[in-house]
Amino acid sequence: MRLIGSFAALAVMLALCAPAAQAQLVPGSRDQIKQSFSPVVKQAAPAVVNIYTKRIVKTAASPLLADPFFRRFFGDNLPPGATQDRVQRSLGSGVIVGADGTVITNHHVIKNADEVTVVLADRREYEASIMGSDERSDLAVLKIDMAKGESLPVLPMGDSDAIEVGDLVIAIGNPFGIGQTVTSGIVSALARTNIGITDFRSFIQTDAAINPGNSGGALVDLNGRLVGINSAIYSKDGGSNGIGFAIPTALVRSVLTSITQTGKVVRPWLGASGQPVTNELAQALKLNRPVGVLINAIHKDGPADKAGLKLGDVVTFVNGREVDDAEGMRFRLATLAPGADAKISLLRDGMEKTVTVRLIAPPENPAREMTDVGGANPFAGSTIANLNPALAEDVGMPTSASGVVVLRIRRGSIAHRLQIQPGDIILRINDRPVATVADAKKLIAADQRRWHISVNREGQTLSMQVGG
User: What is the pLDDT of residues 85-110, one digit of tens each?
Assistant: First the structure.
């Protein structure tokens, strides 16, 4: 049985190595079984690099100064001579995707780095600058500082939407810092959206061995093309358990284009959000099976509203790609650029319908009006702002959210002691509704001895009374 299983896997490998027009065939001889991945590795591996980062952090010169008692007086600003510099180093992998020295890696690989060094498989070593980094997708773009006329190997991008469960793939990276390593496996699943690694979730799952240090490395198909950036593993002990996740090139390409053109990631705005269709909802909506995303919020005069989407519509496809939940729909939209058209297929009253939505950049409407709150009130020491779609995108909140949001809390302030948190949306102050920063400022300015406030925190309403 083991031998038969091996033959089946090799049959798939050989079929994928063959031209696309040929049908998949079972090996007809032992010579055919002796094929290897080496041609693909020789083609792809030179463009997969090791990334070393260095960060200088200040630490307390004495353990006593790290004690909460001292922190209560000094906060994070320790007196002169009380700190010392310490070097933090980390490692990861990356992929050269441009002949000009453009490299894709994970955001978490280079986060807060002061220096980034890229080492090629042929041992050439370069300093690199960070062109842009996007925490929400866990992707970053680097630029190698190379000499004029120097050439670099480049790994071409493939189509992550063309791969299927069962396809053979190769993972290349630098696990544990031991040097470039190649592992192989199959695509175990597609469009994994229930993995809380990034805000845009539709991961390729593979059983190719991925370990710490592989982050930012390449997931390659048997045509020698990049289909994903290895990002995370499922593990209880830090080692590979045969479940790894890669960011599809459909999203990588979008982030790369945005950063290289603008220096930051600008995602399109639909102006609508929804929830997955459960079995109970499917029965209530008289659907044959649970499918798609039920639209439950539409921004007035947003792209979805102008295109004719309605509350209660069930979105099933975006540009011909099936979506099963809200995360899948957000991912599909994130692969597009502002100004692009999204063809959205939906079910309305049991009838199929397709609408074309012209996506735009998230608007700055209303104006943010960022305000530092002072005085003696529950929000003293916080920074608040009007929550518009652009700000919601910046802070990683649903772009359909609105109201007045808490952005920052100053350590030791009244708001900090009352455990007000960044991301809280202020609902009411002394039983008066708060819709704008102007409303909040007016209500906060009142001379009160007793305060009653309500905030929305991750969908839950929290209320508290302050004062006597």
Answer: 666 677 889 999 999 999 999 999 99
